[in-house]
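Q: You know discrete backbone vocabularies at least as well as I do. I have my own habits and do not want them to colour yours. No explanation is needed for now; the record alone will do.
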Amino acid sequence: MTDAMTEPQRVWTVGTAPGIFPFAGHAIALFRRPLDFLNSLPAHGDLVAIRLGPVRAWMACHPQVAHQVLMDPHTFDKGGPLFDRLRALMGNGLVTCRQDTHRRQRRLLQPAFRAARIAEYARLTGREAQALCREWRPGQQVDVTAAMMALTTRVTSAVLFSGSLDAERAATVRECLEPVVRGLFVRTVVPFDAPFRVPTPANRRYRDALARLDALVAGIIAERARDATRHDDLLAVLLAATDGAGPPGEREIRDQLVTLLLTGVETTAMCLASAFDLLAENPEAERRLHHEADEVLTGHRTPDHDDLPRLGHTRRVITETLRVRPPGWIFTRITTRATELAGRRLPPGTIVLYSPYLLHHDPASFPDPDAFLPDRWLPERAAGVPGGAMLPFSAGNRKCVGDTLAVAEATVALAAVAAHWRLRRPPTRRPAPPRPAVTLGPRSLQMICEPRWPVRES
């Protein structure tokens, strides 16, 4: 992939999405059938107006338009409905902060994502994935999504808190994530606050989950303040950090931890669950995955970071999964000043959206876009992907700080499971389409464990 733009003199088209409902605008379509709605937009222009309630917003439907938005974060800052709602949960962390504080925040966190740390986290992922494989039994039906959530919770908790997230606290994180991600999505597409002030069961579950997550993180920070033991984790990095503005305060530390806890657990788990779901539909890609695992992980040994260069097909499966089902599938920005986008003059305060899902399913960038084809990412073919067309981790200086960790973690976990098990769908269960919330992926993927080798009793 390249960041170079290849169409310098394109004549842009600007349109409006049809089907506006009174008061709600396009919120109903975005809530009921979000992926179909997104895929319908490019037919109306490279930049398409939609209505979020009474507010007009603009969807970037062409990779060059999205690229302009992401490469000019001072003009197109974090903001709009999605990030306004996320700030209520994450506070002013790295994902949600405005551009004027982003550089400082990223510099504080960067030491936790250096190459040596990524290698250590990959080894941890391999060990945790092996432990997961030992728990399964032939013929057992497992909730793969829940299993991947448990795996990524253990890895993320080690990255953030060392051993401070015990089994009970890890279970609390997993229990809280589902109501949070569902509740945030509804609050993003519904333009009115009044429905969320009503004490319905769903609203109570959402508020309770937020309170429990806050209490959990606050408790860990308080414990660490009383603990003289040396720790090698992100919390220790934050507690020791300092710059011209002084060390981060307790609230800033809380915001960073909640941000990375939610993004680190949910997105990687959704990617892995989607990968197993897509592999079940594509037996040739699955067969090659198993063959590679057998060649690289001889004797069914635990994979680690040193194996990544030889797990080429496994890595391509992860990359193609991120294309077909990007966990982060829609985002908003807000203009800080008057600007021009796709030939349209936008005033300050304009909401602009971009969707990795939409861009990843553009047939001009990805022929046969709905097909799961890991070999798209062979080096000689990936070089032909237009710049800005593949955005699973965003781009520019707001690109995800943990992108390298996420891909390494997902690749190692997928290889570890593939070395031991084939996961197949129950014969009587029809595959359900992925249900978008704040993240995209199967919310409860039921699959049957089929051993690839004789199972030895432990």
About this structure: The domain at 14-451 is CATH 1.10.630.10 (Cytochrome p450). The longest helix spans residues 250-281.
